[in-house]
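Sequence in, structure out. Go.
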Amino acid sequence: METDIQLSDEEWRARLAPEQYEILRNKGTERAFTGAYWDEHADGIYRCAGCGAELFRSDAKYDSGTGWPSFVEPTSLESVVTDTDRSHGMVRTEVMCARSAA
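Output:
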């Protein structure tokens, strides 16, 4: 696995769109059923918006009914890290790119 991405806050802001920055660097989230990929069914690879690392493949995606993209497994266990998210009155597993996690 490649090493972690080490950028200053200013460099992250220059690299990412405002919504991407909020989600990737501040642990924000898109509103359910609004993101570009929640209802995407095309074959392909899902990559980190921060560093381009391959995280998931479309054949591992399923419809969880939550309004966010859901996957059975990452491309590689080394490509992601997880954290328990207890916000919004529920318990969820937040999955982040291992290279560019805040």
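Check: DSSP finds two helices and six strands in the chain. The helical segments are 9-15, 18-26.
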